[in-house]
Amino acid sequence: SLEYLSLPDLKNLKIDSLNLSLRGFANDFNATLNSKIGKGTLLLNAKLYLQKDTLIESKVLLRNFDLKPFANIHTNLNLNFFAQARKFDLNSLTANLSLSSYKSTIGSYNLDTLEMFANFENGNGSGNIKLISDTTSLKINYGLGFVKNIPNYFIECEASKLSLGKLTENKNLEDELNFSFNIQAAEFDFKNIKGVLNFYLEKSKISNRIIYPTQIQIILEKQNNLNIASIKSEFVDFRLIGNFNLSSLGDNLSKLSKGLSDIVERKKAEFYGDISPLVNMIPKGKKVYVNLTDKHKDLKIVEPINADYFLKFKNIQKASYLIFGEEK
After folding, report:
1. What are the pLDDT digits (tens) for 230-273?
2. Which end of the chain lies in a sparser environment, N or C, as judged by fewer CB atoms within 10 Å?
3. Residue 74: CB atoms within 10 Å
């Protein structure tokens, strides 16, 4: 069912012209597309060759292109994009990708620079993304390589004065985010993934609150066939050891977070009146059994988790500043 998918509303999409040309065969063809969409223009040239050696080549030009009908964000994009790839198995992927822009805007940002580059050969390579505007910068570096057929990869990101309010043109959201993170990991399979995430939050602002600097480290490892997930920070240390699937763990934590949010809403309803809470709490003996219901999602545990955990609180005041901030 597509009932609960958040699909874009295309009722305001206006296509003035669309010209498509195809030449060749199903496994060897060239395609060109020329379309006038609203005030923007889309030009596409694509080549596909599926004979002895796979080849896909694509060139895309956007002029004055607005993503509002697709992504609910106003843009004025002037982009040149080129991609070429041979083979699609990660171990043998060979590809080149480049993107550049000029005189473009995203939300309220006037972009001085929007660049993307990637180069992969036989499964090994690296790339970067750079976005610089009149008020903010976002830089991302990434890479992929193989050690004994096991994928090893890294991602580095640095953001300065990033504003989601300006990006979405939400004048009620006054924010300024300054952060960086880096990831080094091996494997993509959630059952076997190992790696380290370091997250650094610099002094930031959300609405009228100041969020002070902090750092968090997440470590995923495997020892004696047991998964170990550790979180280290200035305010709490947490460690989980056992047989669990990270994907299911994430789903469970998401559902638990939703359940706790519903409990909070019920408590608010007790003070501020009935707001049709989604949670029914049924006392039974000394325990409280919480029956979580949701109109759109099943909040049952996805997969039982057999694990031991260790939790140590260190600086509660630091945690409160991080979560709630401090008024300016």
Report:
1. 989 888 888 888 877 666 666 666 665 566 566 556 655 555 44
2. N
3. 14
C-beta of residue 123 within 8 angstroms of C-beta of residue 105: no
The encoded tokens of residue 259 equal: 């359940």
Q: How many CA atoms lie within 13 A of 187 on its CB side?
A: 12
Residue in 9, 15, 52 with CA at minimum distance from that of residue 37:
15
The answer to whether 262 and 279 are in contact (CB under 8 A) is yes
Give the β-pairing of 104-106 and 109-121: antiparallel
Burial status of residue 111 (CB atoms within 10 A of its CB: 0-12, 13-18, 19 or more): buried
pLDDT digits (tens, 9 = 90+) for 207-238: 778 888 889 999 999 888 888 889 898 888 88
Q: How far is CA 27 from CA 21, 23, 32, 57, 284, in A?
A: 16, 11, 16, 13, 66
Farthest-apart Cα atoms in the chain, separation: 74
